[in-house]
């Protein structure tokens, strides 16, 4: 179920955005479960609340992201160990060292994005253990 705060022509907006009116509730203020929803501001006078529980299996997503985080962290740690080895940095061709540095930077970015996504889900949804 999608909750929308909107002023203006509701039916026109729903048709234009190809939303099923049966799945859209037009409201004047945020729904009660707004803190467990993704909040989208599409424009002035148009906000949408998409309940996370309707979009994904929260527990499965937390498990998936946690496993991904462990895998990426191990990859990152291995790359950083290679880069911290003075013999590797000194003896390996510069192109190889540069490649490892680029992979480490990519892994670090993936770590940050995955942590942020996991923290967002955990902060927005009460997860039953």
Sheet having the most strands: 4 strands, mixed
Give the oligomeric state: single chain
User: Helix coverage percent of residues?
Assistant: 55-70%
Mean pLDDT: 78
Portion of residues in beta strands equals 15-25%
**Lateral arrangement of strands in the main beta sheet:** 2-1-4-3
Structure write-up:
- By secondary structure, the protein is an alpha+beta fold.
- The chain has helices at residues 10-16, 52-55, 58-84, 86-91, 94-124; strands at residues 2-6, 24-27, 37-43, 46-51.
- A 4-stranded mixed beta sheet has the order 2-1-4-3.
- Strand 1, helix 1 (10-16) and strand 2 form a beta-alpha-beta unit.
- Helix 3 packs antiparallel against helix 5 (94-124).
- It is elongated, with a radius of gyration of 22 Å.
Q: Any descriptors?
A:
alpha+beta, 4-stranded mixed sheet, 5 helices, 129 residues, 4 strands
Summarize the structure.
This protein is 58% helix and 17% strand. The chain is α+β, with helices and mostly antiparallel strands and 129 residues long.
Which SSEs are present, and which pair or pack?
Layout: E1 2-6, H1 10-16, E2 24-27, E3 37-43, E4 46-51, H2 52-55, H3 58-84, H4 86-91, H5 94-124
Parallel strand pairs: 1-2
Antiparallel strand pairs: 1-4, 3-4
């Amino acid at each position: 179920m999608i909750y929308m705060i909107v002023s203006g022509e509701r039916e026109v907006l729903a048709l234009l955005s190809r939303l099923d009116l049966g799945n859209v509730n037009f409201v004047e203020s945020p729904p009660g479960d707004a803190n467990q929803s993704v909040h989208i501001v599409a424009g002035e006078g148009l906000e949408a609340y998409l309940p996370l529980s309707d979009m994904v299996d929260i527990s499965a997503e937390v498990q998936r992201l946690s496993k991904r985080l462990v895998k990426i962290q191990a990859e990152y740690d291995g790359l950083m160990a290679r880069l911290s080895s003075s013999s590797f940095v000194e003896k390996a061709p510069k192109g190889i060292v540069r490649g490892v540095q680029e992979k480490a930077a990519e892994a670090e970015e993936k770590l940050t994005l995955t942590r942020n996504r996991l923290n967002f889900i955990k902060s927005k949804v009460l997860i039953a253990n």
